[in-house]
Design brief:
By secondary structure, this protein is α/β, with parallel strands linked by helices. Helices cover 49% and strands 12% of the residues. The chain contains eleven helices and seven strands.
């Protein structure tokens, strides 16, 4: 059995780019260990240089293949690339199914690429709970671009736009709808549109439809606003990957050097703050409710009361307990 290394002692090793330290600290972020929070707070202050690129789209659109091609092209330009691939959770183990990591196995031998699969664990929005902590860790480890590939559920992934500096929405021809990106607001969240598999004969229709739809909404944008390009790519020929890299670089300049970019970064910070608070509240509620819920559940089972009244009682009990805990902490520190 190995010796447990305190999380704060992993920070220097993370900054040196040690894969084992990076992986260990990400695992602790995923598990929500309270011991790791201080280290993650320090890592957050060390981060802030990487560009976070979110890639989303419906299942079968070729997101993982695109991520692999994009990472190879960025590496050819000397950029270190971190990839956080959000996979569905296994219904048995709760872990990630690792489909994306298997599809990008040809990148695993490159020391300038770090790939991490993360399970959603039931989280909505297409993202894993600790995805942004993992992005901070990779940022602090010197990865200049961190790619966050969402799970691919297709209809509720708009959360990625609130977490990434540049959002790429991937569509593909022949998946049932002519324009997949229109689903659930995906059309509106894209900074860059990609139509994959553009070597197919029906790809031109998807490209044309997307461009026409974006043209219809062009009058609603400010004249100086970023106009989302539509780029066709092919994993077979490599077509469009250079153009995609150029578009990401162009949008990175916008997010770094304009008022709109600063407003977006502030929005990302607000989203991060709220999500972190929600996670902490969820953990505290689960811990406090574990003891109280069994008795209330028996009352509900016997129909001695209704779910709403008992839920209010459970909330009242747990929140009062949390308040007593906070008062004890403050009295001890006074």
């Amino acid at each position: 059995m190995g010796i447990y290394v305190p999380s704060v002692e992993l920070i220097a090793r993370v900054q040196n780019g040690e894969p084992a330290a990076i992986g260990r600290l990400i695992s602790r972020a995923e598990s929500g260990l309270a011991e790791a929070r201080g280290a993650l707070a320090r890592v957050h202050r060390l981060a802030g240089r990487a560009h976070l690129v979110g890639i989303t789209g419906v299942p079968g659109s070729g997101k993982s293949t695109l991520v692999g091609g994009l990472a190879q092209r960025l590496r050819a330009g000397g950029e270190k690339v971190g990839i956080i691939a959000i996979d569905p959770s296994s219904p048995y183990s709760g872990g990630s199914i690792l489909g994306d990591r298997i599809r990008m196995s040809d990148l695993s031998a490159d020391p300038g690429v770090y790939i991490r699969s993360m399970a959603t664990h039931g989280a909505t929005g297409g993202m894993a709970r600790a995805a942004l902590e993992a992005a901070d860790i990779l940022d602090a480890a010197g990865f200049g671009v961190v790619i966050l590939e969402t799970v691919g559920v297709g209809q509720d992934e708009v959360e990625i736009v609130r977490a990434s500096h540049t959002t790429v929405v991937v569509s593909a021809p022949g998946l049932g709808d002519e324009v997949q990106a229109i689903k659930a607001g995906l059309l509106e969240i894209a900074d860059i549109h990609v139509v994959s598999k553009c070597d197919r004969s029906d790809a031109n229709r998807t490209l044309t439809d997307l461009k026409q739809m974006l043209t219809l909404g062009a009058h609603e944008r400010e004249p100086s606003a970023w106009a989302a390009p539509v780029i066709g790519t092919s994993a077979v020929s490599g077509e469009g990957i250079d153009e995609l890299c150029e578009a990401i670089t162009g949008h990175r300049d916008v997010t770094s050097n304009t008022d709109a970019g600063m407003a977006r970064r502030k929005g990302i910070a607000e989203f991060r703050l709220r999500k972190t608070a929600e996670n902490l509240l969820y953990d505290r509620f689960n811990d406090a409710a574990a003891a109280a819920s069994a008795k209330l559940a028996e009352q509900l089972m016997r129909r001695e009361s209704d779910p709403y009244s008992l839920a209010e009682e459970l909330l009242s009990t747990t929140l009062e307990g949390e308040g007593d805990h906070e008062r004890d902490v403050h009295s001890k520190s006074a």
